[in-house]
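Lecture 7 notes: from sequence to structure.
We start with the chain below.
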Amino acid sequence: MNPELPLEWVSLNGWLLLTRLGEAQVLLPAMLAALLWLAWSQRATPMAFGWLAGTGAVAMLTTASKVAFFGFAVGYAPLDFTGISGHAMFAAAVLPVLAVVCTGVAATRGRILAACGGYALAALIAYSRFKVNAHSASEALSGLLLGSLASAWAMRGWHRPVARPPLWLALGLLLWMTSLPLSAPPSLTHDWVVRLSLAVSDRTVPYSRWRMHRDHRLLKLRRALDTAGWAPPSSARAQGQVN
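Predicted structure tokens for the same chain:
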């Protein structure tokens, strides 16, 4: 038996477990709990609104990129891009702010370290999307950058320390984030996006990655033949005219 196979199995399952931390069904309830706490502590209401608005905006942009591909064949084959990674986007938009809220540190340096920890975990989740073959590097990176913009924008005015949350809230969120990836059913967000794409387009089946690369290769071949001045035989042209 190849000793490397068990290691590969452990590694793959580790990435599969980590990648689930980027699911909307895991992150959005945790975000909602933190938002309610921020709104309840009166001075943090603007922060809560900025976080909600920024995350909502990038979520809509991410969904639009997927609908554009599945429903209207809008992708970019040279970068293997079919749409922004939702896992990477949500991880980068939620985790840094969640880390700052849950730690409730007063010092500016401490808040920066907490946010950096959130960004580091989001980067690992984005990388996991590539490792489990769910997304290309360009899709994972675009999601990471987009979500990071949302969380950075939400935290831009956090000059004053956020009130420290009660211990039960922090422990509850920690338990939620660590246990749900192990027990939650598979996420259905991808299926919902595909259904939406078909509903707003005239397609009966969604556009796919392999079709994008096939069409790109055919387009390159056609352009190469046109550049070389190749034309189909006269009999083929005549038959095409008749048909």
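Points to note: Confidence is low (pLDDT under 50) at residues 235-243. Residues 45-72 form the longest helix (28 residues).
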